[in-house]
Design brief:
mainly alpha, 14 helices, 2 strands, globular
Length: 361
């Protein structure tokens, strides 16, 4: 919206062209989402507390978590509202990639809302059936990727870029590309959901990864930078940095209330949505493998659950004291803040390493 207003005001004063700059709109989107989320937080916390929308705590989890019983959930509303409003204010409406991300944000948010609602109504931590959740996530992802293939400016969007090797870029068929993309989006959504077990554990890594993906989006949308880094140029990608900026602002604003000890949890409403957004961003900018490096903590959390379940079914023994792996470290004697901050540090290092692969090729 502001981009359109800036274009209109240029007829009166060329100086208003500044509102069309990606850098200015990214900063504006970040600060707008940050202020909205911080201002919205107290009112939403009071409302959710009054409505008794409290988080259901796992009875088989660490005993220290039982103290969190009664903490309001569905805090993802703070993130989603701030993100969408800020994106609508600062992004270019003519960019179809922005609308794809808004669609993913709303659709996964609705799915997460019903999942949280069932947990609150039934007063347990089960929520929506895993089978139905996967089916709906796959349908939403299919719709998003199908639209991407339709609106992308070039016909070579079914490509994969390998780190450390600028010559090895391979193409797959549309069907295989669609299946892989669905796997990435759905897998990312559920990986963040599994990670969201400690105060602030999922939100800051999501923010750091969004920042990394935003930089790649900006690079691929700039013909000079993309040529320098030897990555495919896509004129639609650059605008995604505005969305990533709004994501970062909304996430940091939410962390203000979610940091240990949390005043509010994001719930599946937030975690499923954040993961879906990050996976979709990775597919849109064609850097899924780099995204997997950045999301190493989310991958580790997911693998710990898979290994734990497989080991127990096959051998009758557990590999970890408890899965996901953040609970394992808690039971090993690590204080919750120590687990959280160390996982943040790991993500920060992985994001920097992943960005370095763009040049070390």
């Amino acid at each position: 919206m502001i981009e359109l207003i800036g274009t209109w005001l240029m007829s009166y004063d060329p100086g208003f062209d500044v509102f069309r700059y990606l850098t200015v709109r990214t900063i504006g989107g970040t600060l707008t989402a940050l202020m909205l989320s911080i201002l919205l937080g107290p009112a939403l916390i009071r409302f959710l507390t009054r409505m008794q929308f409290a988080q259901s705590i796992r009875t088989d989890g660490p005993e220290s978590h039982l103290l969190k019983s009664g903490t309001p959930t569905m805090g993802g509303l703070i993130i989603i509202f701030s993100l969408i409003i800020s994106t609508l204010l600062w992004s270019d409406f003519n960019n179809p990639y922005i609308w794809i991300l808004i669609f993913i944000t709303i659709s996964f948010g609705i799915l997460g809302f019903f999942d949280d609602w069932l947990k609150i109504r039934e007063k347990n931590s089960k929520g929506l059936s895993g089978k139905y959740k996967l089916i709906l996530q796959s349908i939403f992802a299919t719709m998003a990727i199908s639209l991407m293939l339709k609106v992308s400016p070039y016909g070579d969007q079914q490509i994969y870029i390998m780190p450390f090797n600028k010559e090895f870029i391979f193409t797959v068929s549309p069907v295989i590309f669609l299946c892989i993309s669905i796997f990435i989006i759905v897998g990312s959504s559920n990986a963040v959901n599994l990670t969201d077990g400690l105060d602030g554990l999922a939100i800051l890594p999501s923010v750091l990864i969004a920042g990394g993906l935003g930089l790649i989006a900006y690079a691929s949308g700039n013909i000079l930078i993309s040529d320098y880094l030897f990555i495919p140029f896509n004129p639609l990608s650059g605008e995604l940095i505005v969305f990533c900026g709004a994501f970062i602002g909304a996430g940091i604003g939410f962390l203000w209330y979610n940091t240990y000890p949390a005043q509010i949890f994001m719930g599946d409403l937030g975690s499923l949505t954040l993961g879906g957004i990050l996976g979709t961003l990775a597919v849109l900018i064609r850097h899924e493998i780099v995204f997997a490096i950045m999301a190493g903590v989310f991958v580790m959390e997911t693998l710990s659950v898979i290994i734990q379940v497989a080991s127990y079914k096959i051998r009758g023994k557990r590999v970890f004291l408890m899965a996901p792996i953040h609970h394992h470290f808690e039971l090993k004697g690590w204080a919750e803040p120590k687990v959280i901050v160390r996982f943040w540090i790991i993500t920060f290092v992985l994001v920097l390493f992943a960005l370095a692969t763009l040049k070390l090729r």
